[in-house]
Amino acid sequence: MELSEIYQNTNKYNISFEIFPPKNGDISKLFDELRILKKYNPALVSLTYGANGSTRNFSIELLQMILDLELNPMPHFTCVCTTRELIEHYIVQIENMGIENILALRGDKSGDENLCSLDFQYANELVDFIHQKTTLSIGVGGYPQGHPQAVSLEKDIENLKRKVDAGASAIFTQLFFENDKFYKYVEHVRKAGIDIPIIAGIMPVRSLEQAQKMVEMTRVQIPQTLQEKLEKYPNDSKKFGIDYAIEQCQNLISNNVSGLHFYTLNKSDMVSEILDRINS
């Protein structure tokens, strides 16, 4: 099912999950976790790959395994270390597999930026190329607090508009912890003339160390109340992370969010408890 079909019902919120190829190459544990998550009937399972396009080839094998679980995969395409020929080859592969959706991102670079050539500098260029070459439905990234490298949120939304105008069908946001910032972002995006669905990115906090890493990598800030709990009661970090995410998700659902996209970190435990308690 394509993105436009999945998110056309404004009275229903959809669940989706992000996973990534395990660094050690052991996929058995990952698919044990995914089988647990399957019971929540996700609309999509997005599959990323590593910086500089690492694990790209491995992703094809994992996509087939997701299909074999009767789930709807959405592979990531990125600009990093990507040529037009490579993208065309990848498109043919996934279309032949029956995949209908992709997530087109600029992607993160790792190490020396001159290690590989780039036919695409920005995500809107990649979106346009895919849109011209295929009937795939294209998702793109959004950043409620601005992309870490954007000079301002306004400029970042201008870039988002370019991606949408190039052919994007849905926006999947970076993780965030303060719903007010998400709602303000949606308001700004709508004022910019963008009317496609915006799916909220959720990452439950597992530990203070993980939270601090997220702060370093993004512009996202951990709310002071949550950070104080993580610092004072480190052994209960998982509990606090689950409770906070439940409150966050319930508020989003009550405000008619189009979907919740969980960054699972290849683990089912926290997401399962969140969804069980939301649906109880």
Q: What do these coordinates show?
A:
- The protein has a single domain, classed as Alpha-Beta Barrel (TIM Barrel), CATH 3.20.20.
- The longest helix has 18 residues.
- By secondary structure, the protein is of the alpha/beta class.
- It is built from eleven helices and eight strands.
- Helix content is 46%, strand content 15%.
- An eight-stranded parallel barrel has the order 1-2-3-4-5-6-7-8, surrounded by four helices.
Which residues sit in consecutive blocks of at least 5 with pLDDT less than 50? 51-55
Q: Mind telling me the C-alpha Rg? A: 18 Å
Largest beta sheet: strand ordering: 1-2-3-4-5-6-7-8
Structural class: alpha/beta
At the fold tier of CATH, the topology name is TIM Barrel
Q: What is the CATH first-level class name?
A: Alpha Beta
- Helical stretch tally: 11
For the record, the count of structural domains works out to 1
Please describe the biggest sheet, giving its number of strands, its sense, and whether it closes into a barrel: 8 strands, parallel, barrel
State the CATH architecture. Alpha-Beta Barrel
Please give the number of β-strands: 8
On the 0 to 100 scale, the average pLDDT is 89
Helix content: 40-55%
How widely separated are the two ends?
A: 27 Å
Properties at a glance:
280 residues, alpha/beta, TIM Barrel, 8-stranded parallel β-barrel
Q: SSE layout and pairings?
A:
Blueprint: H1 3-6, E1 14-19, H2 27-38, E2 44-47, H3 56-68, E3 73-78, H4 84-96, E4 101-105, H5 123-133, E5 137-142, H6 153-166, E6 170-175, H7 179-191, E7 198-202, H8 208-217, H9 224-232, H10 237-254, E8 259-263, H11 269-279
Parallel strand pairs: 1-2, 1-8, 2-3, 3-4, 4-5, 5-6, 6-7, 7-8
Helix pairs in contact: 5-6, 10-11
